[in-house]
Amino acid sequence: MAITYGTGVPESKATSSEEFDRRLRRRRRSEFIFACLGLLATSVGLFALAILVIDLAMTGLQRLDVSFFTNYPSRRAGQAGILSAWVGSLLVTIVTGLVGVPLGVSAAIYLEEYAPTNWMTNIIEINVSNLAGVPSIVYGLLALGLFIYGFGTGRSILTAGLTLGLLILPIIIVATREALRAVPSSLREAAYGVGATQWQVTKDHVLPAAMPGVLTGVIIGISRALGETAPLVTIGALSFIAFLPPSPITLEFPFISFAWLFEGFTVLPIQAFNWVSRPGHDFQTNAAAAGLVLLAITLLLNGVAIYFRYRLRKRLQW
Amino acid sequence: MASGLSEAVYRRQRLRERFIEGGLFLAAASSVFVTLAIVFVLVYESIGFFTTVPLTEFLFGTTWSPLFANPEYGILPLLGGTLLSSAVAMAFVAPIGLATAIYLSEFSSSRTREIVKPILELLSGVPTVVYGFFALLFVTPALQKIVPGLPGFNILSAGIVIGIMIIPYVASLSEDAMRAVPGSLRDGSLALGATRFETAIKVVLPAATSGVAAAFILGISRAVGETMIVAIAAGTQPNLTIDPREPAATITAYIVQVALGDLPHASLAYQTIFAAGLVLLLMTLMFNILGFWLRRKYREIY
After folding, report:
1. N or C: which end of chain A has fewer CB within 10 A?
2. B129 and B40 share a domain?
C-alpha cells in the first residue's frame, strides 16, 4: 500500500479533496434544483384546482341568485334554472344511498368479520377490487341492458339510483373494510369473553367503533354519485324537464307515495352537460353556475370526509 | 348446565346468527353478480353485433361510421382516440405526479404533507363534467394562444385535463408506495453520504418501483375510461390520427354521443355501443389486473 502511494500521496490527496468538494457542491446543487422542481410540480396540482374554482366562479357566480334555484330549465338562458335538476339529484342520491350503503356495509362486514379463507372469499375480494376499476360508463351500459330493457324499470329515478348504488358499492366496501380492520381485536375478544355472539360483537361493538370510517366511505361514495354524468347519459336522463316528480308525501291514505321513483328526471351534472354543449355564451354561464353548485357540494362533502379521516387518525390511538 | 328454557333461547339465537351470516354473505356475493351482469349484458349484445359485422372488420377496419347510410365498423379510430388522449394525459401527469410524490415523501415536512395531500386528493372529487367545462372553455382557449390553429375541439386539451384529474391517483399512490419503503434503507444510504436526492432516486424509487408502476397503471386505467372530459372537449368525430392537436372521438365519447340520441332497441347501431363498451371493459380490466398484481408484489416485499 505504502509503496503504491509513494511520494505522490500528499499531492493526490489534495486534488481528490478538491475534486470531492467540487462534486459535493454539484450534488448539493442538483439536490436544491430538484427540491425546487418538486415544489413546482406539487404546486401544479394545487394551482390547477385553484384556477378551476376561480374560473368557474368568475363565469358562473353572477348567475347564482334565488331564481336560479327555483326556475325550471328554459329556452331563454337568462330565465333558466336548476329546480328540476337539484330535486332530481336529491331524489336519485336518496335511492343511491338506500341501495349502495346497506349492501356495501353488509358485504364489507361479511368479508372482514365472517368470511372464511377459501376460494370463494378470494374471488369476491378480487372481484371487488376489479369492480372499483370499471369505467362508470360501463355501469350505464349495464343499466341500459339490464334495468331498462331487462327489468323494464324505464328511464326513471329508480333506474338511476340502482345504477349509481351499484357504482359506489366498491367504494363503500373498501372504506368500510378498512375501518373494520382498524378496530383492535382486543375489543372483539372482550365482547366474546362476556358471552356475546358474533353478530352481537359486530353490531354492538365493532361497527360503532368503526362508524367514523364507515361514514367517511359513505360520504365519498355519495359525493361520487352526485357528480356522475356518464352512466346517467346512457340511461337517458333528460335535460329538459320542466316539472317535478310527484311528492312522496300525499294528503290521502296511505300518505306516502312511491310514484316519484318511476318518473323521468334530470340531475345537476346532466343539466350542466346540456348547457355546456350548447352554443352561445349565455348558456355557458348557466353551465358554469350549475357546475359551481355541483362543485361546492362535492368539495364540501369531500372536505368533511377528509376532516373525519384526520380526526379519526388522531383519536384512534388504541 | 343450561335449563330447558335457555336451550330454546340458544337454539333460536344460533338460528338467527346463521340467518344473519347468510344475509351478509348474499350482500358480499352481490358484487360478483354485478360483474357477471356487466359481462353478460356486454357479451350478449355484442354477440348480436358480431353476427352481422365480422370480427376482422371490427378489429382492423380504419373507418367508424355506424350511423351513416353506408356504415363501416372499424373500431381503430375510436381506439386510437382513446389511446391518444390517455397518452397525452400520462405524458402530462407522469413527470408532475412522480416529482410531487418524491417531494412529498422525501423532502417536505410531515406538516406540509398532511396539508398538501388532502388538497391534492380533492382533485379526484371534482365532477368530471366540471373538468369538461374547464377543458373546453379555459384550457383550450389558453392553448390556442400557444398552439396556432388549434381547433375548438382537440385531444390535447382533453388529455391535459384528464392528466390533472389523475394527479391524485398517480402522486398519492406513488407517495404511499415510497413511504412504505423502510426507513432503514433511507438511513443506510444517507449514512454513506448520499444526498436526499440521491437517496430518493437511487434507493427509495427502485425499492418502490412496483408500487409506483401500479399507481401509474391505475392512472392509465382511469384515463382510458374517462368519459365526460373527452365527450365535451375532444369532439365526437372519429378520427384516426396521432396528432393530439386534432379533434378525435374516443370509445367513451362515442357511447355518450349515441346514448344522447334515441336509438331503437336491438338495432345494429344500438348494439355498437355494447361492442365498444366490451372493448373498453377489456382494456381497463387488463390494466387493473396488471396494477393489482404489481401492488400485491410490492406488498409482499416489506
Report:
1. N
2. no
| B15 and B121 together in one domain | no
In chain B, % of residues over pLDDT 90 = 52
In a domain, residue B70? The reply is no
- The shortest CB-CB distance from A295 to any of B97, B126, B262 is to B126
Domain presence at residue B276: yes
Q: Please give the model's pTM, rounded to 2 decimal places.
A: 0.88
Q: Are residues B246 and B137 in the same domain?
A: yes
Task: Say if residue B36 is in the same domain as residue B176.
Answer: no
Q: Is residue B114 part of a domain?
A: yes
Residue ranges of A 48-87 with Cβ closer than 8 A to chain B: 48-49, 51-52, 55-56, 59
> How many independent structural domains does chain B possess?
2
| Interface subset of B 1-30, CB within 8 angstroms of A | 13, 16-17, 20-21, 23-25, 27-30
Range of the domain at B16: 4-52
Q: A36-93, pLDDT tens digit by residue?
A: 999 999 999 999 999 999 999 998 888 888 888 888 777 777 777 888 889 889 999 9
The ipTM estimated for the assembled molecules is 0.90
Residue B130 predicted with pLDDT over 90: yes
Residue A13 has pLDDT above 60, yes or no: no
B81 and B15 in one domain?
no
Residue scoring higher pLDDT (B147 or A172): A172
Q: Please spell the DSSP secondary structure of chain B, one letter per residue.
A: ---HHHHHHHHHHHHHHHHHHHHHHHHHHHHHHHHHHHHHHHHHHHHHHHHHS-HHHHHH-S-B-TTSSS--B--HHHHHHHHHHHHHHHHHHHHHHHHHHHIIIIIS-HHHHHHHHHHHHHGGGS-HHHHHHHIIIIIHHHHHHHSTT--SS-HHHHHHHHHHHTHIIIIIHHHHHHHTS-HHHHHHHHHTT--HHHHIIIIIHHHTHHHHHHHHHHHHHHHHH--HHHHHHS-S-----S-TTS----HHHHHHHHHHS-PPTTSHHHHHHHHHHHHHHHHHHHHHHHHHHHHHHHHHH-
A20 inside 8 A of chain B by CB = no
Band (B253; pLDDT cuts 50, 70, 90): very high
